[in-house]
Amino acid sequence: MPDLFDIKLVFTQIPELLKYLPVTLELTVAAGVIGLLLGVLIAIVRVKDIPVLKQIVVVYVSMLRGTPIIVQLYISYFGIPILLKYINYWNGTNFDVNGVPPVVFAILALGLNQSAFMSEIIRSSIQAVDEGQVEAAESLGMTANQVRLRVLLPQAGVIALPGLMNSLIGLIKGTSLAFVCAVVEMTAAGQIMAGASYRYFEMYCSLAIIYWIITAVLEWLARLLEKKLSIPQEAPELQLAVERTVTND
């Protein structure tokens, strides 16, 4: 019988692939932080309906959500160096464009892409908070910042958590496309190793197992956080909580 599939190889090459897991996690964390910070800012602009800025971010979100991430990675990888060269030309500087690590281009593309999706999750979560609770807090003398920090954002955060965790899981899987920016993460390393052995099927099975385990762990953590942060139905009225907050202040 021909040796078409080696099940042992699927598991024996997993340790080699895990050597590149830190690169995948670096991409995920850095892009996730960028996406979350920008997503919050974009959501605030849209919720507050700030003129001009709102129109700009609407186009920004539409463009990033409406184009493939692999295209955005290519634009980042080839476009940012061109932009930097123009900046060198206009300002008479001599910045080493070729010295920029490829991982920077991948992080920027992934982070900007995530900001578009996260902003929609955060915006809808803020709008889902009952306005009556905000009004109750304001009627008790809380300032606008206190209302946002102690009433609005904590509840919006709980509502947004499932969506943000799903976005993070999607980001981890999206890092597998970073190879187009010459970043050697797990998937790129697997392709290189498979090119030497011609065992592509086994390699992709190994990668599938790793990504599946990572996402399963994240889903478990998400459920744990949701259970820990969820507000029980029998919780005291918001007014009592706000009164305690005002008293403590």
From TrEMBL:
The chain crosses the membrane at residues 20-45, 57-80, 100-117, 200-222. Keywords: Amino-acid transport, Cell membrane, Membrane, Transmembrane, Transmembrane helix, Transport. InterPro entries: AA_ABC_transptr_permease_3TM, ArtM/GltK/GlnP/TcyL/YhdX-like, MetI-like, MetI-like_sf. Pfam families: BPD_transp_1. Residues 21-222 form the ABC transmembrane type-1 domain. SUPFAM superfamilies: MetI-like. Signal peptide: none annotated. The keyword Transcription regulation does not apply. It is a multi-pass membrane protein. Belongs to the binding-protein-dependent transport system permease family. This is Amino acid ABC transporter permease.
